[in-house]
């Protein structure tokens, strides 16, 4: 035995888990808060494929056109003439995504784009699928 020091032979080494659990819960809360959810259209649309697709990063209003040229907004069939009224209800600058089936008429898509531009929408995108 040394003078001035006590030897502890019975002392056990323990790992404290509380700080690790705190960090895990903080990370979980961070990921829950920062996750963005995309709202997919429930309309079955066979989109054309492209090798130059780009992801849209801001809030987007979606209009879908199926193969029978029926136009959908929020999963409800609408008339093309009602598009300016539907898009003018939004107070902020929005972007429009048109998901058109590859068998839909071009005239339907062009008239949707024309009505959206008359409503003041400046950013219009066409939905496509990336070629694999």
What does this entry look like structurally?
The protein is of the alpha/beta class. The protein has a domain of 82 residues: Nucleotidyltransferase, domain 5. The chain contains 3 helices and 7 strands, in the order H-E-E-E-E-H-E-H-E-E. The protein has a 5-stranded mixed beta sheet, with helices on one face. A two-stranded parallel ribbon has the order 1-7.
Keywords:
132 residues; alpha/beta; Nucleotidyltransferase, domain 5; two-stranded parallel sheet; 3 helices; elongated
Mean pLDDT: 78
CATH class of the domain at 49-130: Alpha Beta
Low-confidence stretches: none
Structural class: alpha/beta
Query: Rg from C-alpha positions?
Result: 28 Å
Question: What's the gist of this structure?
Answer:
This protein is an alpha/beta fold and 132 residues long.
In terms of topology, how is this protein built?
Layout: H1 18-34, E1 49-50, E2 60-65, E3 71-73, E4 76-78, H2 83-88, E5 95-100, H3 106-118, E6 123-126, E7 129-130
